[in-house]
Design a protein that fits this description.
Layout (H helix, E strand, L loop, with lengths): L8 H5 L17 H9 L2 E8 L4 E6 L4 E6 L6 E7 L2 E5 L2 H8 L8 E3 L7 E8 L12 E4 L7 H8 L7 H13 L3 H4 L7 E9 L6 E4 L8 E6 L3 E7 L19 E7 L23
Bound molecules: zinc ion.
Zinc ion (ZN) binds next to loops.
Protein name: DUF1989 domain-containing protein
InterPro entries: DUF1989
Pfam family, one: DUF1989
Length: about 280
């Protein structure tokens, strides 16, 4: 049973919140430079991600990658690694702490400790008009983890093999020539591309709703370091009803890589690893 509130409960609740991580001192991306370089860039790779599957793709530092909705509304679960050191990978939780629950143009995907540096910067988002809806929902979240067979088993006893976690694991294993057992620990919390999500106001529960994405919509990134990416076309489709099953209608997603002309990024260099000395006081 809930306790009776203290006499000053309303006063305590009325205290103004403070932003945990003000971002004024965060190194700002030079979006004008990135966009100018993108103008003259040419396509160097194209990968189609089939429904309920995932595919890997490589993006050299200083190149761009674009995720596009094709054929029908579809959500994608994105993992990123340092191409030469898989222990450096996308850190969804810290990205959320820095930028908020959803990402859009100008926001960055930050890497895990002890690296904590930008891996990729969003340079264009065709769904940036969506903003935040009346339910508190928005697009491209870093709050969901990825659909996975373990939670499905926990809640319903299922043995479903095409959740994003499994799709990403199979794709990475295939790319590395590694076993499923070797690949699985590298799969991590995702950027939910095109997914529309939020928290319910009354119970604070994670919710999803039909994605506003339509064929032709895209999210485009600048690779700050050499990247290995993996994208899963979620079995939830547009995530309007359910995931972790073969029920939803699903569509492919397209990943295109673009490389700028030599000299187009004059003055830019890949960000250094985090400057903390790593001694932890010892
Ligand atoms: Zn999924």
């Amino acid at each position: 049973m809930t306790r009776n509130p203290p006499a000053d409960a309303d006063l305590r609740r009325a205290i103004d919140p403070v932003i945990c991580y003000p971002t004024e001192t965060l190194p700002a991306p030079d979006l004008d430079l990135y966009r100018a370089a993108r103008e003259g860039a040419h396509e160097t790779a194209s990968v189609t991600v089939p429904p309920r599957e995932a595919r890997c793709f490589s993006v050299p530092a200083g190149s761009f990658f674009r995720i596009t909705s094709v054929e029908g509304p579809q959500v994608g679960d994105l993992n990123l690694w340092n191409a030469t050191d898989l222990s450096e990978r996308f850190y969804s939780g810290k990205t959320r702490a820095l930028h908020g629950t959803h990402l859009t143009t100008g926001r960055r995907m930050w890497s895990s400790f002890p690296h904590l540096r930008p891996m990729a910067t969003i340079i264009e988002d065709s769904l940036d008009w969506y903003g935040r809806d009346a339910f508190g929902g928005s697009v491209h979240d870093v709050i969901g983890t990825r659909c996975d067979p373990y939670t499905g088993n926990l809640l319903s006893g299922s043995q479903y093999h095409h959740c994003c976690h499994s799709n990403l694991t199979r794709a990475l294993a295939g790319h590395l020539g590694a076993s499923i057992r070797e690949a699985e620990p590298h799969v991590h919390d995702v950027l939910n591309v095109f997914m529309c999500t939020g928290f319910t106001r009354d119970t604070g529960q994670y919710f999803m709703k039909a994605s506003p994405v339509r064929p032709g919509d895209f999210l485009e990134f600048f690779a700050e370091i050499d990247l290995l990416g993996a994208l899963s076309a979620c079995p939830g489709g547009d995530c309007s009803a359910e995931h972790s099953s073969d029920t939803a209608v699903c569509y492919p997603l397209l990943v295109d890589v673009f490389t700028p002309r030599i000299g187009a990024l004059a003055g830019w260099r890949s960000p250094d690893r985090n400057g903390y000395d790593g001694s932890h006081g010892l």
